[in-house]
Input
Amino acid sequence: MPRITDPLELEKSKSHIIVQIIEYIPNAILSKTIIKKITGNITISSFDAGEELSEKTTPFDTYVQIIDGNARLSINNSKYHLKLGDGIIIPAHAKHNFTAEEQFKMLSTIIKSGYEE
Output
């Protein structure tokens, strides 16, 4: 399964329709950076049906929202079915993975500051 990442940010001060920023690619997961800063980033991803993002952990909380389709998410072995409009916070250091039983797109936001408190 190829994972394709576009390193360029979205153009600033230009209106866009979020679900149209990224397309579905057969047999792939595609990611595009919307904004990337030292303090965090926002990324949009599309998953073709049958694709899976292998289990990983991140040192920061991550907020994800489904903007097209439905997704399966596992967080520390708890299973979630997320549908259009659903959002969830994946806690820092939690093992998690995504599975696409059908195509879906998601927006993810990682905040890297505020952990020093």
User: Anything to note?
Assistant: The chain has a mean pLDDT of 91. The chain is about 0% helix and 50% strand.
